[in-house]
Amino acid sequence: MTHILIVDDNLTNLEQLNIQLEDEFEVSLAKSGPQALQICRSAKPDLVLLDIEMPGMDGFEALAAIKADPSISHIPVILLTASPETKTELRAIREGASDFLAKPVERELLLHGINTQLLFAESKERRDAMLRDFEDRLIIAFSDIIEHRNEIEPVLAGRASKYVRIIGDTLLGKGAYPEELNHRAVELMTRASPLHDFGKIGIPDVILMKPSLLNDDEFSLMKTHTVMGETHLRRVFRLLPRQDFHDYALVMARSHHERWDGKGYPDGLSKDGIPLCARIMAVADVFDALVDARPYKRTMGIQEAFRTISAERGTVFDPAIADAFLEAEEKVTEATWAGQDG
After folding, report:
1. pLDDT, position 205
2. Regarding predicted confidence, which is higher, 201 or 141?
3. Taking 80 as the threshold, does the pLDDT of residue 150 lie above it?
4. Of 215, 244, 336, 341, which residue is the least packed, with the fewest Cβ within 10 Å?
5. Which whole number is the average pLDDT over 18-27?
């Protein structure tokens, strides 16, 4: 059942609105802005009816807090006021309200306003989901072409992204990095991860496809793909609508070859000085490279690749992240075989 949250400091108003809606919707009631925010974050209602005139945190402040929180900013908010003025209505729309209604509201008008916003939100959610799916497929396809550009038909497996999600979910389950890691962060890292090697677009084929180890000069050029990746992605992102995963993509592109012991590149960062998303990407990227066939090496067996990750925890890799990856061996193995089958 559709869940509506009603927010008003006046108990009589709350009860009247509740009576109007309780036969059609699941209804929650809040008497203040802070209480409304708590319910929004825990219960994720489908729509909020929010009174403007409240003591402490008023309706506009509560609206701003809702729109500032990525986990609940999508919830449509209809502002209610007993003192409607044009300037108040304009402010409501400018600050992100979905609609504006004057109290007292006739039931038919209230239901019409609610149902209109719910239909709009549902349509927007479907459109956004389709757009995200298209973008994700395009990102994976483009990154795979860069990584396997000598092949006639790219693999399109997105295997490293699966490893990033597995690591993120495993760390979440362990309660690791609570200040940096949540479900939203894992989602954004996963979306960004196929772009981590974007800079390889600027590396000549003669180096990328060399069937032997690179010499010092060639390796120095290869290492520039990290900085080039960040630079090129910034240029691309300037031409696109701003999305939250862009920041993760920039960091992952630049820093996925940093090492826990400080001996990586391009900046020689170490330990927690390396952004968390780049530390996760480092494990996923190395394992993916180990089990993948490259011009200069054979395909390594999965168990041997796991042993390599284990051997390099605390030197190349963040130990906690390496441990999370190793603990998820069954899921990683399943993702690896699925990628190879693809």
Report:
1. 83
2. 201
3. no
4. 341
5. 95
**pLDDT, position 157:** 47
Residue 151 lies in a domain: no
Supply φ then ψ for residue 324, to 5 degrees. -60, -40
pLDDT digits (tens, 9 = 90+) for 29-58: 999 999 999 999 999 999 999 999 999 999
For residue 288, the domain's CATH number is 1.10.3210.10
Q: How many CA atoms lie within 13 A of 271 on its CB side?
A: 0
Domain that holds residue 112: 3-123
Asked if the structure places residue 148 within a domain, the reply is no
Nearest to 190 by CA among 284, 266, 270: 284
**How far apart are the C-alpha atoms of 63 and 46, rounded to whole Å?**
15
What is the rounded CA–CA span in Å between residue 317 and residue 323?
10
Q: Which of the residues 31, 162, 174, 200 is marked catalytic?
A: 200
Q: In the annotation, is 44 catalytic?
A: no
Measured CA to CA, the distance from residue 143 to residue 35 in angstroms comes to 45
DSSP string, 251-313: HHHHHTT--TTS--SSS---GGGS-HHHHHHHHHHHHHHHHS-BTTBPPPPHHHHHHHHHHTB
pLDDT bin (cut points 50, 70, 90) of residue 212 is confident
Closest CA to 44 of 18, 11, 66: 66
CA distances from 222 to 140, 149, 197, 201, 231 (A): 21, 16, 11, 11, 15
- C-alpha 238: how far from chain center: 19
Instruction: Compute the half-sphere exposure of residue 102: CA atoms within 13 Å on the CB side of its CA.
Output: 6
Q: Is the pLDDT of residue 93 over 70?
A: yes
Q: What is the mean pLDDT of residues 266-290?
A: 96
Strand partners, 48: 5, 77
